[in-house]
Amino acid sequence: MRLKPRIVLHSPVMSPSKLKPFVERCLRDGVQLIAVVGDGCEDLEEEIDWIAIEDDSRPARYIPTTSSHPNKPVEEVLEFAALWLCEGEEGVQQVRL
Fold first, then answer.
1. Are 10 and 95 within 8 A, CB to CB?
2. pTM of the predicted model, to two decimals?
3. What is the distance of C-alpha 21 from the center of its chain?
4. pLDDT attached to residue 60
5. Among 66, 58, 59, which Cα is nearest to 22's?
6. Where are the beta strands (DSSP E) in the chain?
7. Long-range residue pairs from 20-25, CB within 8 A, at least 24 positions apart, any chain
8. Would you say residue 85 lies in a domain?
9. How far is the CA of 39 from the CAs of 53, 70, 95, in angstroms?
10. Number of structural domains the chain divides into
11. How far is CA 12 from the centre of its chain?
12. Does residue 1 sit within a domain?
């Protein structure tokens, strides 16, 4: 099953070894928004960006938007993501790693 184009990722990541495979899957599935919420969300957003661009021999490695939402309730971030304009199916997928 493909990931939805809008993701809300909960921070902190409990299984750090799952982060890189998750980002790779987001790249393959054409995810257009990863909004990170929770403790340490700013650092996690930056880590996602670095994973996405680490193989610069493949220029198509691009997630259009990542964002972090420190001190915001999950409900507010879900609403933000739901309103984000992007191609593909509707809805927001919450992810905990």
1. yes
2. 0.92
3. 12
4. 66
5. 66
6. 6-11, 33-38, 65-69, 93-95
7. 20/51, 22/95, 22/97, 23/48, 23/51, 23/52, 23/63, 24/51
8. yes
9. 24, 7, 15
10. 1
11. 13
12. no
Across 27-47, average pLDDT: 96
CATH (domain of 15)? 3.40.50
Question: In angstroms, rounded to a whole number, what is the distance separating the alpha carbons of residues 73 and 37?
Answer: 8
Question: What CA–CA distance (Å, rounded) separates 41 from 37?
Answer: 5
Quick check: is 33 in a domain?
Answer: yes
Q: Has residue 43 been placed in a domain?
A: yes
For residues 42 and 64, give the distance between their C-alpha atoms in angstroms, rounded to a whole number: 17
Q: Crossing angle of helices 41-53/19-29, nearest 10°?
A: 60
* Residue 24 clears pLDDT 90, i.e. is over it: yes
Structural domain boundaries, residue 79: 6-95
